[in-house]
Design a protein that fits this description.
The protein is mostly helical. The chain has a domain of about 120 residues. It contains eight helices and two strands. The chain has a two-stranded antiparallel ribbon. A hairpin with a 2-residue loop joins strand 1 and strand 2. Helix 1 runs antiparallel to helix 5. It is elongated. It starts with 7 loop residues before the first strand and ends in a 5-residue tail after the last helix.
Length: about 210
């Protein structure tokens, strides 16, 4: 069930998440929606700053909001997420979305100036609230969905939400250089020399002048 956005008070949700009650997951979803819903309206209003990036940015953040709410709603309903896949077994996706031209940390907050930084501050405050990151970390899909948004807004993730460290890449071993094989020695033929060649050699030896 979609959740209505919560009004903001001084840049933060009017009601902080009540993580002590039985509806802690729903409270985290409510606060996330209170940040992302008006942020989407801001992106639509600042279309002149984004230019051709308006549609992909708005679509990416809108899908992020919908997916986060859907995953958190399933957790609140008692549906445990699937265990994470083992490293190296992630299926290949052929229809990947087009990458943004700027991958710098916090590039969207810089482009939209102080308006986006206000929502980035809200998201950073929510994720560093004790207990919120642990709830989101129960869903590997929610963590993967949230990381690109935090990178665009320049939000530092809590340690529990950061991606696992990649194993070091082993150094590439170059193939050994081929060893030059020496040429085979030339051996005299095994068959005897013909008589006519021996006779010609003797003749020219007698005819050649002797050097004294």
């Amino acid at each position: 069930m979609p959740m209505s956005p919560t009004p903001l008070l001084n840049g933060l949700p009017a009601a902080p998440p009540d993580l002590a009650g039985p509806h802690a997951v729903a409270e985290v979803a409510r606060c996330l929606d209170a940040i992302l819903f008006p942020f989407l309206a801001l992106i639509a209003a600042r279309f002149a700053m984004l230019g051709p990036l308006l549609t992909p940015v708005w679509t990416r953040i809108s899908r992020t909001r919908q997916r986060l709410l859907r995953l958190l709603t399933r957790i609140a309903a008692g549906h445990l997420p699937r265990p994470p896949r083992k490293p190296g077994t992630t299926p290949h996706r052929s229809g990947a979305s087009a990458p943004f031209p700027n991958r710098r940390h916090g590039w969207l907050a810089v482009m939209l100036d102080h308006n986006a930084r206000n929502y980035a501050s809200q998201l950073n405050h929510l994720l560093h609230t004790p207990g919120v990151a642990e709830i989101i970390a129960t869903s590997p899909g929610a963590m993967r969905t949230l990381r690109p948004l935090c990178r665009m807004l320049g939000v530092d993730l809590p340690p529990v939400l950061q991606p696992p460290a990649r194993p070091p890449t082993p150094p590439r071993q170059r193939p050994p250089k081929p060893v030059a094989t020496p040429p085979a020695p030339i051996h005299p033929p095994d068959r005897p020399i013909p008589r006519n060649i021996l006779a010609a050699a003797r003749y020219w030896r007698r005819r050649s002048p002797k050097i004294t």
